[in-house]
Specification:
Length: about 140
């Protein structure tokens, strides 16, 4: 009887540990090449960095999976680190040489978009699709 009580208790408590933990798949397509990697910074709704992720590129695409997310609002930014130097390389006047992007495919004017444009809500397992911007000058 004691073992049965323990099993019932474990089964009753298990949902508490897994409840509210979601998976976010970020699919980045349209990368210029499969060279290098994609570096992504994942932030909370206040713009505070939660984690940094480096992911390889296969056939000009990158899939980044973020596990164990609690329900909430998040944002991210990423770039195609073609030469794997872990920084966004810039041309004259600060124009990026490498592709970059933001959650919601948000765009900025003469700079990055506002955090408000990048914020999205996670309430379930979900996938988002992103396309990087490459500036040709």
């Amino acid at each position: 009887m004691r073992n049965l009580s323990l099993v019932v208790l474990v089964l009753a408590v298990m949902p508490l540990f897994s409840f509210g933990q979601f998976t976010l798949k970020i699919e980045i397509s349209g990368l210029e090449s499969s060279e290098g990697q994609v570096l992504l910074e994942f932030n909370n709704e206040k713009g505070e960095k939660m984690m940094g992720i480096a992911q390889s590129i296969v056939e000009n695409q990158c899939l980044i999976v973020v596990n164990d997310l609690k329900p909430g609002k998040y944002a991210f930014k990423y770039f195609h680190d073609k030469n794997v130097n872990k920084k966004l390389d810039l041309k004259w006047m600060g124009i990026p040489k490498e592709g970059f992007g933001f959650s919601n495919n948000a765009k900025g004017t003469f700079g990055p978009p506002s955090l408000e444009k990048m914020i999205f809500e996670v309430e379930e397992n979900m996938s988002v699709k992103c396309t990087p911007t490459y500036i040709k000058i």
